[in-house]
Design a protein that fits this description.
Elements (H helix, E strand, L loop, with lengths): L1 H36 L1 E7 L14 H10 L4 E3 L5 E3 L2 E6 L5 E6 L13 H14 L12 E7 L2 E6 L41 E6 L3 E6 L12 E7 L2 H9 L5 E4 L13 E7 L2 E7 L9 H11 L2 H10 L3 E4 L45 E5 L3 H15 L5 E5 L3 H9 L5 E7 L7 H4 L17 H12 L3 H18 L2 E14 L2 E2 L20 E2 L5
């Protein structure tokens, strides 16, 4: 009897052990599953080669790493206006030339060291010494920087410059980390990517990089625990990955011909890109030295059918163009209804408003130059077809190298030039439309020379009040539409594909693809508790 009772106790003991083993196994599996649910797996384009935050022409993967790990004194809001980031406050003197900026305290680098104004001074010195001079960086050679104490810095400008705060959005580098550590080579150590951003790089190889959240981030601890960036070499590879649901999110280019509606677990967020596809007319030579001819071309290309044909033929979603991006704070807003365009021409097609008789005249063919770009070449052909309806002949000259195309631009050896212009976050149009920029190395490709336009551009650069600048840029857009130096065809729109469980991405204008991460600390992965 005792033996039988002991046997029952022993059996119960073994059953209890087995139960706890099963429970422990389930717990481990559940913890692993929860870990995966707290990790955002993001597909990004390009294999990183250099993660130096200051260098330009990063691929998307490199930009994404920088966006997750670094901050600037200021950042861009949803309309492209500069707002505080590492900076705590700022003030400017009445003459608009001296800016005093205090940084937030305390802010720590990922390795625990404290951010000070010496890091700001170091970064500006690096900017001056390592960047090729262009309109975006040459101003730093004309600015004096004074460190008042560990958290206050003064910038003194030679002359008033209203867009200055936008130029303070560059990433701040740590003074105590060598810039040589940013190159991807056999000696690369991800622990040397030390920033102040919302995520800390933990591991890296040529297929992915893994990040953990920054517990001391100055906007609060990010809600998503971990992020893994997976590197792909092409947009097509990422599309295939979406179809197989290999990751949670990805920023891709989609045309209207491609749909992901069949993927029930995904949703999309649209991001208008700060870039303009522009048809420059050479205003310095016939026929476009005459306003009436520029207006004529503008009327012919300003119709819905033409825009729709472009959209059908290219691999990018687009919105109608405007000289100041319609999604920026100074733009005139979106308008994609039919009244955005001129009325469709009649079959006879001669309702243009000008004095020249364009009928029954044999006109020489005009030259349209275009770089090596599939979408631009397709748009060029649409322009050719549209103008041919009015017996305007176009010869398209496509260049095999960017260098040859740039030489043709410099020599102004064209009637039309079609290219993509990457816009600065501030809508300042000086570098493209001011008369002073007509000569090389200026970028006034059209050669427009208009005193009223110049005056509005100059006012917009010197008046610091945002609302006054808004009124000036509204007048600038009206004047531009009156004299039509060129035609802004379209702006591209990128599609951010995310799992429906992810909340936080906002549809706003961006100036590079990594700007989608500007509020990443507020994103969440919604976990079903059921």
């Amino acid at each position: 009897m005792v033996a039988k009772h002991s046997s029952n106790i022993l059996n119960l003991f073994f059953v209890t052990i087995i139960f706890f083993i099963i429970l422990a196994t389930f717990s481990i599996f559940n913890q692993s599953n929860k870990h995966n649910k707290h990790t955002l797996i993001e597909a990004t384009n390009g294999i990183p080669e250099n993660i130096n935050p200051i260098l330009q022409n990063h691929n998307q993967s490199e930009n994404d790493i920088v966006a997750l790990t670094f901050n600037g004194l200021f950042k861009l809001d949803n309309e492209g206006k500069p707002v505080l980031d590492l900076a705590k406050n700022w003030e400017v003197t009445p003459d608009g030339r001296t800016y005093t900026i205090q940084i937030k305290e305390p802010i720590f680098w990922h390795d625990g060291k404290r951010l000070t104004t010496s890091d700001i001074s170091f970064t500006i010195s690096y900017l001056r010494n390592n960047l090729i001079s262009n309109q975006d960086t040459s101003i730093w050679n004309e600015i004096e920087v004074f460190l008042i104490n560990s958290n206050t810095v003064i910038f003194h400008l030679k002359e008033r410059f209203a867009p200055f705060l936008t130029y303070l959005t560059f990433p701040i580098l740590p003074n105590h980390i060598s810039s040589n550590n940013y190159s991807i080579n056999d000696e690369f150590n991800p622990m040397n990517i030390v920033g102040t951003g919302p995520y800390i790089m933990q591991s890296f190889n040529n297929t992915h990089a893994h990040f953990i959240r920054n517990p001391s981030y100055h906007y609060g601890v990010p809600k998503i625990k971990n992020i893994t960036l997976k590197f792909f070499e092409s947009n097509e590879e990422m599309l295939n990955g979406i179809n197989q649901e290999l990751f949670d999110s990805s920023m891709i280019m989609l045309s209207n011909k491609i749909s992901i509606n069949k993927l029930s677990s995904y949703k999309v967020t649209k991001y208008p890109m700060g870039q303009s596809t522009t048809l420059f007319m050479n205003n310095s030579i016939e026929p476009f030295n005459e306003l009436v001819n520029r207006k004529y071309i503008g009327q012919l290309l300003h119709n819905k059918e033409f825009f729709t044909n472009i959209q059908l033929d290219i691999s990018t979603e687009i919105i109608p163009g405007n000289v100041i991006h319609p999604a920026s704070w100074a733009g005139r807003g979106f308008s994609t209804t039919n009244n955005q365009y001129a009325k469709k021409r009649s079959n006879h097609g001669h309702d243009h408003d000008h004095d020249h008789d364009h009928d029954h005249i044999e006109r020489p063919a005009l030259t349209l130059i275009v770089p090596q770009d599939v979408n631009l070449f397709s748009i060029a052909n649409n322009i050719k077809d549209e103008l041919f309806k009015e017996d305007i002949k176009i010869n398209i000259r496509k260049f095999s190298t960017n260098q040859d195309f740039e030489l043709a631009l410099e020599d102004r050896n064209f009637d039309f030039a079609l290219l993509n212009i990457s816009e600065l976050a501030d809508p300042d149009p000086y570098y493209i439309w001011h008369t002073s920029q007509t000569l090389i190395p200026g970028f006034n490709i059209s050669g427009i020379n208009d005193l009223l336009l110049d005056g509005l551009i100059e006012q917009g650069r010197t008046i610091p009040d945002m609302y006054e600048r808004l009124a000036i840029y509204d007048k600038f857009q009206s004047r531009f539409n009156e004299i039509i130096p060129s035609i802004i065809i379209a702006h591209p729109v990128y599609t951010y594909v995310t799992k429906k469980t992810i909340s936080g991405p906002e549809s706003t204008i961006i100036y590079n693809l990594s700007h989608r991460f500007k509020n990443i600390h507020r994103w969440e992965i919604i976990i079903n508790q059921g």
